[in-house]
């Protein structure tokens, strides 16, 4: 199948900036538009979703995703709302949920449906909470209480504080770390803005990862939250 590479550097600016660029919104599609743009416009880390013959993969959905959404986005910087609606109609049929074509959904629900039930991809994340049994998932949704000292946070701060408040650790370094910000939905947004962290340091988030003692410089044996 045809493949357009993800956009990089000056090419990304040239192709994606300006009016009538991105994924055209229609009928509460913003959750899906934002997720698809984030996953595919400028990175190839999940391109296996577009080409790999997974054991339970639905070829029709995979073809729509690749040929009607990702390739046009990377090639011209624009995807018509009708292409996303075509995908939403297929998700409605496969997911046995009639509201995928007209209602606003949680991005995690969309990702779980398309990655697990339709394409059959193995979970991307392994998490452990408080020494309990590890759990697998496809993305991490940031949950945290409102903190007055965070007015315009960056992604690094939000991830660290969310992991700390939930007593979470990454069991292993993920091949892909999809993070859902606490800024979505029509009713409530915890932060007016969030600054993207272009790199994410997960050293302190890894389970049993050797780290340096902040006092003596040797390998640490204890961790203070």
UniProtKB/TrEMBL annotation:
Places the protein is found: Cytoplasm, Cytoskeleton, Spindle
PROSITE patterns on file: USP_1
SUPFAM superfamilies: Cysteine proteinases
Entry keyword annotation includes Cytoplasm: yes
One biological process term in Gene Ontology: protein deubiquitination
Location, primary (coarse class): cytoplasm
GO CC aspect terms: microtubule; spindle
Keywords: Cytoplasm, Hydrolase, Microtubule
Matching Pfam families: UCH (PF00443)
A molecular function GO annotation: cysteine-type deubiquitinase activity
Domain Peptidase C19 ubiquitin carboxyl-terminal hydrolase residues, every copy: 22-202
Name the record gives this protein: CYLD hydrolase
Organism: Rhipidura dahli
Taxonomic lineage: Eukaryota, Metazoa, Chordata, Craniata, Vertebrata
Gene responsible for this protein: Cyld
């Amino acid at each position: 199948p045809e493949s357009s590479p993800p956009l990089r550097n000056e090419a990304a600016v040239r192709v994606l900036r300006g009016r009538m660029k991105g994924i055209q919104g229609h009928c509460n599609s913003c959750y899906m538009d934002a997720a698809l743009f984030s996953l595919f416009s400028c990175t190839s880390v999940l391109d296996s979703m577009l080409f790999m013959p997974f054991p339970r993969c639905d070829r029709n959905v995979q073809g729509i995703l690749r040929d009607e959404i990702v390739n046009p986005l990377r090639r011209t910087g624009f995807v018509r709302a009708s292409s996303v609606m075509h995908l939403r109609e297929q998700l409605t049929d496969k997911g046995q949920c009639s509201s995928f074509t007209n209602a606003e959904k949680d991005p995690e629900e969309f990702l779980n449906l398309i990655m697990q039930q339709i394409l059959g991809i193995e979970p991307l994340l392994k998490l452990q909470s408080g020494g309990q049994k590890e759990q697998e998932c496809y993305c991490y949704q940031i949950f945290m209480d409102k903190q007055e000292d965070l007015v315009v946070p960056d992604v690094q701060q939000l991830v660290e504080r969310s992991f700390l408040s939930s007593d979470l650790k990454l069991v292993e370094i993920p091949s892909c770390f999809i993070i859902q910000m606490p800024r979505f939905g029509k009713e409530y947004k915890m932060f007016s803005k969030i600054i993207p962290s272009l790199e994410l340091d997960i050293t302190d988030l890894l389970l049993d990862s050797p780290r340096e003692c902040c006092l003596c410089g040797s390998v640490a044996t204890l961790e203070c939250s």
